[in-house]
Known about the structure:
The protein is of the alpha+beta class. The protein contains 7 helices and 7 strands, in the order αααβββαααββββα. A hairpin with a 5-residue loop joins strand 4 (234-236) and strand 5 (242-252). It is globular, with a radius of gyration of 26 Å. The N and C termini lie far apart (71 Å). The model is unreliable at 1-42, 153-171 and 176-226 (pLDDT under 50).
Amino acid sequence: xxxxxxxxxxxxxxxxxxxxxxxxxxxxxxxxxxxxxxxxxxxxxxxxxxxxxxxxxxxxxxxxxxxxxxxxxxxxxxxxxxxxxxxxxxxxxxxxxxxxxxxxxxxxxxxxxxxxxxxxxxxxxxxxxxxxxxxxxxxxxxxxxxxxxxxxxxxxxxxxxxxxxxxxxxxxxxxxxxxxxxxxxxxxxxxxxxxxxxxxxxxxxxxxxxxxxxxxxxxxxxxxxxxxxxxxxxxxxxxxxxxxxxxxxxxxxxxxxxxxxxxxxxxxxxxxxxxxxxxxxxxxxxxxxxxxxxxxxxxxxxxxxxxx
Length: 308
């Protein structure tokens, strides 16, 4: 054994001497250049504006919750306070993902609210955090069937958002699959981004499509999507850097439900709101206008906290 170890050391030493000689000789070549003289490494793209996220269960004013979830104030004192506190999403890094859920029962059904915050970090040195967040937003919008703005066309030679998303998902440790209530990543959070282990708020999963509501019948066309441009799924102006609203009507054995989802981007943060109403009577269809109006009011309140 000693002879074998010694022989190995001798061979290693010889190799080191040879390598040292080669290195010295290449350094003397006037035309070869050194590593320091080679092309400069590309600098990292610009980081996002936000490095932390709001505490989700404390991000919604009590008065806003009262308007969104009628019936909370009729609860017994202890249960009322618990309902207002909300149920935080399970997340493993609150600087990357936070979420919260609130639910209230009504005589004829339920209403639920889920919000999800995701701070996007690009792991591509040539792609900024904001651009990465825009790619993820575009993917969500495409999945929701939201028409792309006419003034935003893909650049020649650039990969599609879906392709970029697929290529980068494995490199981003925060985007692990989970029922994020969107939760992305995303489910359509859930549409809220359920792709980062954030409990039940997910990248985009709407709260109204959760299990336990009964088996859904074949997709029925939503009245808002079939004719009324004022309430149809669409892009929204004046909300974050870019935003859209989705409106889905469904029926199940336990009744009818309407799910309103709003997604907006504020720099490198994606915010998803999932607001739904369940009716125990399939013939009692929740309307779009009231739910959309209240969801948009909340979205603007949350957007203002990022702009402040």
